[in-house]
Design goal:
313 residues, alpha/beta, eight-stranded mixed sheet, 11 helices, LDAH, AB_hydrolase_fold
Length: 313
């Protein structure tokens, strides 16, 4: 439990960690989508860092909050509370890695446990991670934003469509009921629908996660409600003053053809905060890289290399 809310973690604990990498998902904020990434990142860091993915409240298989809807701001508060509650006695620095489990060093399971950083965030998780970084500057050592969603893209038809649905309570309920109906079908039929319409290139793990967690009425309602609050907030400019102040501790990885984080946003960051580490992934992976093994492995290698480089400085 984090601030009385059930919280799903995906974690690999190091026996002798030198730092703790905290992974903040995008939207949907389902920690289990990052299983392959978390495992690969742990291995690439030589087992010397604990790695934890923290799921969003009520983006989970069980409706522990009884239908309550949570805004992006509340999800930010939740991540701050997690760090202050679970890592308060840790002397390790935190790395935040933000995107769109609980592990031990030998086995996989889910629970809430005492953790001891760096921060990584994916998609809207990059925005969330920056806000967490602002509030906990004395605890966060560095921040990595992966395929970041930091402001609205007015040229994106997909964003316009999602925004239209998310703003309508009636449409959001309809989409959530449809997702719930699909989730009630036979498992083989559910997997076929997910693979056909969501992820033809998804791994078996990602397909199973979508079937078990995403196709729930409460999860889809929270995904769309959070999206509505995201779109309202991201009409504003990012806090460029903060990014510039911490530019030597921040990195962003963009995709070549990603409407959530177009290269025009990379160009703006380079002008606003020229010392931020900026990279473009050209290997053909997508915004949803965590849903297949090749994407997870490549991005984990990128993050590990950035952390190792920063540690040498």
């Amino acid at each position: 439990m984090v601030s009385s809310f059930a919280t799903e973690l995906l974690e690999i604990k190091s026996k002798e960690p030198s730092l703790h990498v905290l992974v903040i998902p995008g939207n949907p904020g389902i920690a289990a989508f990052y299983k392959d990434f978390v495992e690969a990142l742990y291995e690439n860091l030589g087992g010397q860092a604990s790695v934890t993915a923290v799921g969003h409240i009520s983006h989970s298989q069980k409706d522990s909050e009884h239908g309550r809807l949570f805004s992006m701001h509340e999800q930010i508060d939740h991540k701050v509370d997690f760090i202050e509650q679970e890592l308060q006695h840790s002397e390790q620095s935190i790395v935040l890695v933000n995107f769109h489990l609980q592990f031990t060093t030998t086995s996989l399971h889910s629970s809430c446990s005492m953790l001891t950083g760096n921060q990584v965030g994916h998609s809207i998780g990059a925005y969330i991670g920056l806000e967490v970084f602002k509030r906990l500057q004395n605890k966060i050592k560095m921040f990595v934003g992966l395929y970041p969603f930091l402001k609205l893209n007015k040229n994106s038809v997909t964003q316009s469509a999602i925004g239209y649905i998310a703003r309508s309570s009636l449409l959001s309920k309809g989409v959530s009921l449809l997702a719930s109906f699909i989730g009630s079908l036979q498992p083989s039929i559910i997997r076929g629908i997910v693979r056909r319409f969501l992820g033809t290139s998804w791994s078996v793990t990602a397909v199973d996660v979508a079937c078990c967690h995403l196709l729930k009425y409460h999860t889809m309602r929270n995904v769309l409600f959070m999206a509505m609050t995201e779109f309202q907030k991201l009409t504003e400019e990012p806090d460029w003053m903060f990014v510039r102040a911490k530019e030597d501790k921040i990195a962003f990885l963009f995709g070549v053809d990603d409407h959530w984080g177009p290269l025009s946003h990379l160009e703006e960051i380079s002008k606003r905060a020229p010392e931020v580490t900026l990279s473009v992934e050209t290997e053909g992976h997508t915004h949803g890289y965590c849903c297949n093994e090749p994407g997870s492995f490549w991005v984990a290698d990128y993050v590990a290399n950035f952390i190792k480089t920063q540690k040498r400085h």
